[in-house]
Amino acid sequence: xxxxxxxxxxxxxxxxxxxxxxxxxxxxxxxxxxxxxxxxxxxxxxxxxxxxxxxxxxxxxxxxxxxxxxxxxxxxxxxxxxxxxxxxxxxxxxxxxxxxxxxxxxxxxxxxxxxxxxxxxxxxxxxxxxxxxxxxxxxxxxxxxxxxxxxxxxxxxxxxxxxxxxxxxxxxxxxxxxxxxxxxxxxxxxxxxxxxxxxxxxxxxxxxxxxxxxxxxxxxxxxxxxxxxxxxxxxxxxxxxxxxxxxxxxxxxxxxxxxxxxxxxxxxxxxxxxxxxxxxxxxxxxxxxxxxxxxxxxxxxxxxxxxxxxxxxxxx
Length: 316
Prior knowledge:
Blueprint: E1 6-9, E2 13-16, H1 19-64, H2 69-126, E3 137-141, E4 156-159, E5 165-171, E6 183-188, E7 191-205, E8 208-215, E9 231-233, E10 242-245, H3 249-253, E11 257-262, E12 265-270, E13 272-276, E14 280-285, E15 306-308
Antiparallel strand pairs: 1-2, 3-4, 5-8, 6-7, 6-9, 7-8, 10-14, 11-12, 12-15, 13-14
């Protein structure tokens, strides 16, 4: 059970912050040492003052015969005694001074070491604070008291209300064709908006990988987080190609053949599909310019070689 003055760090490692009181005690001891110096100096001064005055006065009075020899001898003995005491005190004081100076140096080093330890501990504590990398609205928070979090774990999500990022899931065959800074176009509410690739996550999983895009200019009004919007990329230069609309026929044939319209008939013909986007397929072989195919599902046709068309409203 942790009490006041304890912190828990990295696997319940507790650090007791008793360093400040110790530093305070060391500083108090330094003040005591300084006081000791002052008291020592004052004692020596008082020891020297009174006896010297009496001896000097009696010495002058002796010359005039105003005092007796015994009285003069007493003051001289007191003066000599105190002078010897002074020398002994000064010698002891010098010895004590050297010891106390060494003690003060040791105390100062201890205080400096304690201050350095406190600085390191404060830096460790600062690393325990989670700081938001950007400003915005905290839309989710996945953190509870006592939960273990590793570096890189997601704690939550911050939505920047005036900043949007488009995440695109792409087929793995484009992983070598997409690059940072590549331009793209997003069609939203009948208007095109320019995008640029900002980051590529090249890890392929289940035949797909992800890229991040940012708006390159105007941002559409009313766009919401989690909304699905088609994005168009342009790979390479402009080339002439035969294109057909995307449709359910691809799921029926795998793009290997299609029914080609010829008047009131539709004939099965082998084709070869190349590049594709969200709207069209590129036909590399099997079709001529101007020809039309049936793009709806072929499930009801039972893989017939030729169809006789009675309904002129067939999807084309």
